[in-house]
What we know:
Elements: H1 4-16, E1 22-27, H2 34-47, E2 52-56, H3 64-69, H4 84-96, E3 100-106, E4 111-119, E5 125-130, E6 149-153, H5 157-170, H6 175-196, E7 202-204
Helix pairs in contact: 5-6
Amino acid sequence: MTSFDAIIDEIAGRAAGNPGRTIVALAGPPGAGKSTLSERLVTGMAGRGEKAAILPMDGYHLDNGILEARGLLPRKGAPETFDVRGFIDIVKAVKAGGEVLVPVFDRDREIAINAARVIAPVDRIIIAEGNYLLLDQAPWNGLAPLFDYTILINPGIEELTRRLTERWTGYKLDAAGIDWKLNGNDLPNGRLVIENSRAADIVIDTV
């Protein structure tokens, strides 16, 4: 298994040969640990003297009102419930350089907050993280040429089930609510990511 330090070395090496921004795609199913690894990577890069920032895909959830009107609210988190074009546009803007304000998803309130995070001009390495960054289906595959390095986290369905059950239990859902979240949405989305993502530069099974 590739070590965390080896991943940091690889990213730093690619950034050293890139005069502009280096965009790292960190993809994986719900509950895989993308947010945790993103934070670790930013901290690890800081230890190398590199300025890094996180660009979360979750900020591009469609609003609940739009999802409800389209009959998609129960499937929130599926590929069709995101503003993919908006996300592609922001990745292009980030890659071009300069300050970029990006939205962040508030899971407690289930809303995306606009301009909630700053990617500063000094941030040379950007960790884009989200379920579908490597999904080999339109329109998501429009992201492919924008990434300089790609990572896929795949802990396996059994471990994902355990983590997601723990997550939704923490949100005080009853057994029926947890069952729907798992089998009606999260695990189907997770299998889609595992089975239909493009080959990543590296695949890891734990964070």
